[in-house]
Write a structure and sequence with these properties.
Elements (H helix, E strand, L loop, with lengths): L1 H20 L22 H4 L32 E2 L4 E2 L5 E2 L11 E3 L2 E2 L6 E6 L5 E9 L7 E2 L1 E9 L12 E5 L4 E5 L7 E8 L7 E4 L7 E4 L10 E10 L2 E2 L4 E6 L5 E6 L11 E3 L2 E3 L2 E6 L2 E6 L3 E7 L8 H9 L10 H4 L8 E6 L4 E8 L2 E9 L12 E4 L2 E5 L6 E5 L11 E3 L6 H7 L9 E2 L2 H10 L5 E4 L1
Parallel strand pairs: 1-8, 3-9, 24-32, 30-31
Antiparallel strand pairs: 2-4, 4-5, 6-7, 7-9, 10-11, 11-14, 12-13, 12-15, 15-16, 15-17, 18-19, 18-23, 20-21, 21-22, 24-25, 25-26, 27-32, 28-29, 29-30
């Protein structure tokens, strides 16, 4: 085929040259052969001599040959499929609660591909413990780059159980028929478990588990049968998935109490029997209040004997406890405040609470519709044979100096104009100053409530007439 093409090329070249020179063209058949002396005629066409004739302007190297059919090929499809790429093993991952997207290494042969340039990643089931999947997708096409996809799996291990720390601080405030428990939250705890027992006893008599909203405080109300004569001990545990923390924190607390004076009757009074001892609810207008069943009796002091007083001269409540006792007031302890539950109608900016059980005065000031404890001090109420009146009183008369008596700053809560006498919160007798100061915190008076001079004077100067005085 190559020889035939070469002959055609030469013939075309000759025809062009002849046409340019004006020479007539003869067919091969018209050419007259020269006489051969030997009688032999050489046919150059048959012998292939024409192949060796070099025509001017024709160069063999410039002759372009058509490729054989079996030498033809396509130049498309230079991209690399990564469906069989190798993904290095992915280490186990720890559960965090959030989607986990570990880095991966992808290789095609000995070439390490680059994330974001050669491929992108996709993840599935990669949050909770179990088997997660990562999918590698090429960012190129079949014509260039890397195309296709492959995937691998990895394990998300369940989080190891968290070791809960013990509760570091537990505070228990006594209220009016309830307790308020406040503690330092523990990281990781989903609830708290509380045990209650009588102080000094190993036996748990009540338990309570907090709900989802009680993360740092809760109430222990009358539904749990609180006995106001007992001292309680509370123990708290942090919990996670039903398991308790190893360490705990305990707190002891007494309920808010009033002083109890017990008496023996000299004679029968209604269903009360002579010679039998009864606890009184309080004292006022010369009579003890004694309750039996649903009936309350008012027994004259003259009809009683062998009086005993149950109180604690060294007790003291924190100001937070005082405020909780008076106000109650929280979403879980509504109506447990003394003022609301006893329907106390306190007027003015100040409220005075004389706690008979611990012989202490607490001064409260109204703030944002609640009472804030701003001061407290020791006092001395009446002795067991001459007790101070109890209940809800008001300041009804003031005297800076009372004739015939050396103590200053008299703030009367009872007064009889006929006898020009009454019960008051007053200061210290100058002639007996040392002994009176030492007796603060104990039952010592004849019925009045003794206070340090500066406290009695403050009440006189700041508390208006009608200021509520609660003696409980």
């Amino acid at each position: 085929m190559r020889k035939m093409k070469n002959r055609l090329s030469i013939l075309i070249a000759v025809l062009v040259m002849v046409s340019m020179t004006g020479t007539s063209v003869l067919a091969y058949d018209d050419v007259q052969p020269a006489e051969d002396p030997a009688g032999t005629v050489v046919n150059e066409q048959e012998e292939g001599v024409i192949d060796e004739i070099e025509e001017p302007g024709v160069v063999d190297e410039e002759i372009q040959a058509e490729p054989e059919e079996d030498e033809m090929y396509l130049t498309e499809g230079k991209g690399t499929d990564i469906s069989s790429a190798v993904i290095d093993s992915i280490p186990d991952q720890k559960y965090t609660g959030s989607p986990i997207e570990p880095a991966v290494t992808v290789k095609v042969g000995t070439t390490t591909l680059i994330e974001g340039t050669d491929y992108k990643l996709g993840f599935a089931n990669n949050t909770n413990p179990g088997t997660a999947t990562v999918t590698v997708t090429g960012m190129g096409t079949e014509d260039a780059g890397y195309y296709g996809s492959c995937n691998a799996t990895f394990t998300i291990a369940a989080a190891e159980p968290e070791t809960l720390q013990p509760v570091k601080k537990l505070t228990v405030l006594p209220g009016n028929g309830c307790f308020k428990l406040t503690w330092t939250p523990v990281k990781g705890a989903d609830s708290y478990y509380i045990e209650r027992r009588y102080a000094g006893s190993k036996k748990v008599n009540r338990t309570r588990k907090t709900d989802a909203k009680e993360t740092k405080a809760c109430a222990w109300e009358n539904a749990y049968k609180i006995n106001d004569k007992k001292t309680y001990q509370f123990t708290i545990y942090a919990m996670k998935n039903g398991k308790k923390s190893k360490g705990t924190k305990s707190a002891k607390v007494k309920t808010v109490r009033r002083m109890v004076i017990s008496v023996v009757l000299k004679q029968n009074v209604g269903s009360l029997k002579a010679g039998k001892r009864y606890n009184t609810l309080g004292f006022g207008s010369g009579h003890f209040r004694i309750k039996k069943g649903k009936k309350t009796y008012y027994v004259s002091r003259l009809k009683t004997k062998s009086r005993k007083a149950n109180y604690n001269p060294n007790g003291k409540y924190s100001r937070d406890a005082v405020e909780f006792f008076m106000n109650g007031g929280s979403t879980w302890a509504k109506g447990t405040g003394y003022i609301k539950k006893r329907k106390v109608k306190a007027k003015g900016n100040y409220l005075i609470w004389v706690n008979s059980y611990n012989q202490h005065v607490y001064l409260l000031k109204k703030k944002s519709k609640k009472w804030e404890c701003i001061d407290d001090w020791k006092c001395s109420m009446g002795q067991k044979d001459t007790p101070s009146p109890t209940g809800h009183k008001k300041i009804i008369k003031k005297m800076r100096h009372r004739p015939g008596h050396g103590a200053p700053f008299w703030n009367f809560i009872t007064w009889t104009s006929k006898g020009h006498t009454g019960t008051a919160l007053h200061g210290i007798q100058p002639s007996a100053r040392s002994s009176w100061l030492k007796s603060l915190g104990k039952l010592a008076s004849h019925g009045c409530i003794r206070n340090p001079d500066e406290k009695a004077e403050w009440i006189m100067d700041h508390c208006n007439m009608g200021t509520m005085v609660i003696i409980y």
